[in-house]
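2.7 Reproducibility. Because tokenized structures are sensitive to small changes in the input, we list the exact sequence used for DUF1631 domain-containing protein, including any N-terminal residues retained from the expression construct. No trimming or masking was applied before prediction.
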Amino acid sequence: MTTLQPSRHTGAPDAFRPHQGVLLECRDFVSQRVREALARAVGELGDELKARRLGAKTADEAQKLIELQALLRGIGADIDRAFSAGFEDQFQERAKTSNVGGSFYEGENGFFPELSLVDETEIDETLAVKNLATRLERACEAENQDLQTRVAFILGESDIDNATNPIGPTAICEALKNICWGQEASGGLRATALELLVGRLAGELSTVYHDVNSLLVARRVMPNVRPRARRGKASERMAVRKSATLPGEPDPSDVVKEIFTARAAAAERADWRQRAGTVELMQLLDGLQQGRGDLEFGGQSFALPSDGQVSGNVINALIEAGLSKQASSVDGIVIDVVATLFDYIFDDSRVPDAMKGLIGRLQIPVLKLAMMDHGFFSNRTHPARRLINLLAQASVTWDGPLSEDSSLYRIAEGIVVRIQNQFADEPSVFAGCLQEFENYLGEQERYADARAATLTERLRERERIDLARKLGEDALSAHLGNEDIPEVVRAFIRDTWTRVLGHAALEVGATAAPVRSERWAGAMAAVDELVWSVLPKQSMEERQRMVKQLPVILRNLKACMTGAGIEEASQKAFFSELVKCHAAALKAPVAPAPAPVRPAPNAPARPSGPLPGLQPIGEEPTPEMLELDLLTRGSWLELRDESGEVRRVRLTWISPARTMYLFANRQGQRALALTRTELARRFASGEASTADQEPLLDRVVDDVLDELRG
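Resulting structure tokens (single pass, no recycling of outputs):
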């Protein structure tokens, strides 16, 4: 059986990656689900090939279909065992040769693969597998990206690609290719069989990877993977742009590097009117923003929907109508990049559709702004970027569905309309709208905090009581663990005497040991005497002492309970049980006195008390505890209730000792207090998770830039 070896170099501390073994569980899960899908596919394809054979028009076509049927039967006869073994080999190879500084799964052959010459047939096979793996990857792109992020985390990597993912589409295709190529058949038939089987898997793999991601979330492996949009559109546009570049025009890659960096950003705004055709292009965009139809630019007509309602990426529609081709090379690249940014925004599953619609109405103003000021791409503090980020973040943290009747929607819509009506070539309108929206959100948070604050004094008092009681429990732990003490007395110590000690600690405001209080010291002495009194008395001296001391012991117990407010009825009930315990202690048989033990000559004296240097072993921090320690006032959480509904709440207050957490939703309509223990339990069960707070447009710009760099 394969055993996990921790990597010698990781991208994160081990404390943040405690679930490495779950990768083996995922491997077995994927293997089982793919084997089941392949078994179904072989049966279905056999039936389809039979029907096609019966309808074949030529003997040659029928013969090829018969051979393909026979090949699929051969594959299906041993598909379960063969794929299980083949996928295991692919898993081990990728896990072993990950980019980590050390080997995660270390095999017998060390780190360096054997070098050998590769013939053209192997190259053809490799390309075929790569193309089919790409087909599988595109069929489950979103699920596969989340899976790669989580698997990279387990392996200690910052990132892995499809080819190095031990349970990714390439590993599946390689295992399946080896099965097909192990059959007695021509290369063309084997390639056809492989393509048919991969085609069937493409329809099911997204479900498989969705379930694997759910398994990893349940195992607390990166439950909050950052949403990533579908990739490819930026690189496709850039490829088209490069192919159309004329001699003497700037290289599109150089322009992209320029607009995504701070270089010359300040000068761009002053120079935009000097670019050929830019003024005319801006006039077209002004007309489109004002709702005018049938406008011309470069001899072509352009228009937006006449009702003024924006649906989807309208910049894409303008590009398809030829806008970026009519523009200058620099302006055309800016148009392509802004269109891609909005593609990514519309693909983000976390932003509610209602807010996507409002942000979508800013497409033309944002395009104009980006053409005037390339600093929009490089400056994270740009007012327009911050405004879009705040609009998205406010909608993501809105508690409940966001509708046109929501106050957030009404405020945001007013801001969007103001930009549509007022923005021409002066970007200060974005700064003014940003300030207005920040004021709205700030007022909302102050209102929510004020309503939640009415609970903080009660929660603070509850924490003081809980901490004081915990001090009592810790002080009494030795007695509570002593099974020689009668159960009725241990129950009294656990339920009543912890209250007595807690009251003594509260009296002097103590929330941590040691407690310096006469009442505390008296209560500890009284409980020690109580314990001594109920243990068996096996000598005459002990019995005589007990008879003499018993009135004092009872008087001290009663005084401590009365001082702590313990009810009279509870005191009487315990004392009636205590009589029976004392009688049993006195009935114990008298034991003979032990013979004195002479110490050995020069024997060292045995130390009393705990040995120096020995400390209790603390528990390793769990991911849940680490998440709790990272929470700060203002952090957003998503809480899932029993019905599966997600509530988004903001942390408004943490108690002084961090044992109580108070949350409120954005609207200030509800508040929720959770203890540290309960919150840790919810994190562990997946009922609670930190909300993604990375600004939307910053994330989108980074994703587009990563794709263009790739």
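The two ends are 39 Å apart (CA to CA).
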